Amino acid sequence: RATQYTCMLLSYLIEHKADKEKLVMKLKQLESSMSSGRKMFRLGNMVHALAAARRTTELPDVVPRFCLTASNLARALYFVCDAVLWLKSIGLQPDVDKPKWRNWATKCYYFSLLMNLARDWYEISWRLEQAVQEAKTKENSFWDKHNQELNCVKCDGLHIFFSLLFQTLKRHPPLLLDLVKNLCDLSGPLDTLGIYKTNPGVIGFCGVLSSLVGILTLASPHLKLKQ
Asked: 140 in helix, strand or coil?
């Protein structure tokens, strides 16, 4: 995935430079190969998504339970559409309506990301509320240290909110990384569905950043946001 989006980003950056046509073509071919390879590697992910959905239905908190279950079910549908597109690409299902299935896949992926972001915002809101209570009661040494910044009467509400948000995300790296990854992944569906058009450079950069976050959470599992 990181290789695919790196190729997309590099080809966008150098496509207008002279004498770079062959390199751009090679980068686009490699990007296409990586995309096809990823579709094949994802063939079993539908089962994984359904198993994850079953686990999340047992979460005690209703909001994460709903958001994560809906996200995993949408991802399962996305993987079904993705498998159909892969069958089309290798010639086993030549009659498949590729634009229609790609649109369905993108919508499922988009909905899954929205549910993930809703869960992230719920976690942030809950922790912000905790931070406010800690700042008021002065029971936490961290908030005592930043008491002047957080409770300054001269500061407007927006400044206090962003200050609390910054400190909350700083104290919870898994939540920050999950938020960054979901926001970056959102660029592709937004562009494909025509909701917010960008360009391959932006999508490539966001894809690389999202992939690096994914690699980091795999290398350091404690940085992955727990369900």
From this structure: coil
Check if the beta carbon of residue 86 is closer than 8 Å to that of residue 36. Answer: yes
**Cα gap 58→54, rounded to integer Å:** 7
Q: Per residue in 60-73, pLDDT tens?
A: 999 999 999 999 99
> What are the phi and psi torsion angles at 177 (to 5°)?
-65, -40
**Do the domain assignments include residue 85?**
yes
Q: How many domains are there within the chain?
A: 1
Query: Looking at the domain assignment, is residue 153 inside a domain?
Result: no
| Residue 151 in domain | no
Q: How much is the pTM?
A: 0.86
The answer to whether residue 33 sits within a structural domain is yes
For 216, half-sphere exposure in the C-beta direction (CA atoms, 13 angstrom radius) is 16
Decide if 209 contacts 180 (C-beta within 8 A): yes
